[in-house]
Amino acid sequence: MQDHIELVNQLAIATPSPVNPIQLPVLQDYDVTLEVKRDDLLHPIISGNKWRKLQGHLQRVLNAKTQNDSPISALLSFGGGFSNHLHALGYCCYQLHMPFTAIVRGNYTSHFTPMLEDLQAWGTTIQFVDKKTYQRRYEPDYLRLLSHEHPKTRIIPEGGSDDLVLKGVASMLDEIEDLDEYEYLLCPVASGGTLAGIAQGLAERNSRCQVIGIAMLKGDTYLENLVRQLLPNEYPMPRIIHDFHCGGYAKCPTQLATFCDNFAEQTHIPVEPVYSGKLFYAIMQLIEQGFFPKGSRLLALHTGGLQGARK
Ligand SMILES: *Cc1c(COP(=O)(O)O)cnc(C)c1O
Questions:
Q1: Contacts 24+ apart (CB under 8 A), 62-69
Q2: 124 secondary structure, DSSP code
Q3: Is residue 66 pLDDT above 90, yes or no?
Q4: 3 state SS of 161
Q5: pLDDT tens figures, 165-187
Q6: If DSSP codes are grouped into helix, strand and coil, which group holds residue 59?
Q7: pLDDT digits (tens, 9 = 90+) for 200-232
């Protein structure tokens, strides 16, 4: 615990993140309330949901570092050219003085994204790989090869999602007063770690609040399988709604773009179309479909991710 407080201090994470009420006419029309857990405010650089997910990984490496003859002294992970995960991890490693290697899908050598420019400024070793190589990111043979090329390095999976993330994500629930006053907690789903962590956390806390995941990408059954693999069997599988991916991961049709602009203007809460904007887009449509019974109290998790929207 002491170690953990040090990590929070060292990275200047602003916990607990606030919960803000939303005021929009549609909420009154359908007699529901909506509040937002603002994990986008946890840190100006480290995307909120990635802090929740990465703290277990970072703590593990820091603990190893304090032992003499540490077996681990560096980190490596995977992502795309706009990845919030690589961005957050790159910044944490820079602050914690840990060497970091980013395996990036595609070749951006001649046109770095703002995310990659940040990584470079923070001293990350960037390795571009083609699609085919990137597809091997879960293969034991490929991981062995990477381990060989990068000794004493902890390899973190894409999006940071493995069993180490669940506790960090669930700790968010302890920051919410009156958790049981909410009927529904809604969050985005991409690699599934956030939803699995919340599902486990709610069950462990015997909460009556029900979590619903909103799929950010096309993946009927695929996303359910990811969550099931992360979530120990004794916990019930949460529901995932697949109707609002808007064509796929990071796809942004005009309707979604317009929604994001209007939502940010009306609520003064910044959103981007890949995660948070898509989540609220889905919630508003579900409300208008009468999905939530009258009188329902909803809590949405704003996972951050605004860095990814930079041009
Ligand atoms: C990575 C990410 C998610 C998705 O979380 P998963 O645990 O991968 O499902 C949601 N929102 C933001 C802002 C993210 O960066």
A1: 62/3, 62/7, 62/96, 63/3, 64/154, 65/98
A2: P
A3: no
A4: coil
A5: 999 999 999 999 999 999 999 99
A6: helix
A7: 999 999 999 999 999 999 999 999 999 999 999
- Ligand 1, atom 8: nearest CA belongs to which residue? 191
C-alpha to C-alpha distance for 113 and 93, rounded to whole angstroms: 19
Distance 189 CA to ligand 1 centre (A): 6
Sequence-separated (6 or more) residues with CB below 8 Å from residue 232: 200
Task: Kindly write down the DSSP assignment for every residue of 265-282, as one continuous string.
Answer: HHH-----TTTHHHHHHH
Q: State whether the beta carbon of 307 lies less than 6 angstroms from ligand 1.
A: no
Q: Token match 């506790």: residue?
A: 167
**Contacts (Cβ under 8 Å, ≥6 apart) of 18:** 38, 41
Closest CA to 147 of 178, 197, 101: 101
For 59-134, strand residue ranges (E) read 74-79, 100-105, 125-129
Of the candidates 181, 167, 153, 185, which has an alpha carbon nearest to the alpha carbon of residue 283? Answer: 185
Mutate to test the pocket of ligand 1, among 224, 275, 280 (most ligand atoms within 8 A of CB): 275
Q: What is the tens place of the pLDDT at every residue in 99-120?
A: 999 999 999 999 999 999 999 9
Ligand 1: which of 41, 46, 49, 86 to mutate, most ligand atoms within 8 Å of CB?
49
Judge if the beta carbon of residue 304 lies within 6 A of ligand 1: yes
- 135 secondary structure, DSSP code: T
Residue 1 has pLDDT above 70, yes or no: no
CB of 197 closer than 6 A to ligand 1? no
Find out whether the beta carbon of 48 lies less than 6 Å from any atom of ligand 1: no
pLDDT on residue 90: 98
